[in-house]
Amino acid sequence: MKPIYQSVVKIFILSFIWITTIRGQTTYNSKDESRGTVGSSYFLYQQAEYPRDCQKVYAQCSTTNSSGVYLIKPDGYPDAFEVYCDNSIDGVGWTVFQRRIEGSIYFNRTWKDYKNGFGFQSNEFWLGLEKLSFLTNQKKYEIRIDMESTAVLSMFFVSVMGMVTSE
Description:
Layout: E1 4-5, E2 8-11, E3 26-27, E4 33-38, E5 41-46, H1 54-60, E6 68-72, E7 81-86, E8 94-99, H2 111-116, E9 118-119, E10 125-126, H3 129-136, E11 141-148, E12 154-161
Parallel strand pairs: 2-8
Antiparallel strand pairs: 1-3, 4-5, 6-7, 7-8, 8-10, 9-10, 11-12
Keywords: Coiled coil, Disulfide bond, Glycoprotein, Secreted, Signal
Signal peptide: 1-24
Subcellular location: Secreted
């Protein structure tokens, strides 16, 4: 029997931490696997097939606390790319597509920068609208935004998420 799981995406913005959770139902089919590493995180990935999101990364991971930078390849996207997967908050498999905490990366940028992404997944970054489009068009998702201010105020919001379309 194939396990059913949820997918999750996470955002961090400005001095607030915004966590965006995408939830959907898909199945995981195990094939021949190889062990791979990115940074200090270990995971299993299918030969010639990268995981399509952080939920698949978590399903293939060799440890239970596997937050870190991984390579994924959403359905239809031409190449694998790095994302930060967070498995420490409200479930597992959260794909962080924006994080801005202390302002070390300049976010006043061109449309091309926002389309392609900028920064570093291990710090502050924007994943990119093109990558986000392929990621969110794979299945139905739910979005969850958690905010935390520097004054230790926190709250969250849950809603159905639409797709990010191409240009």
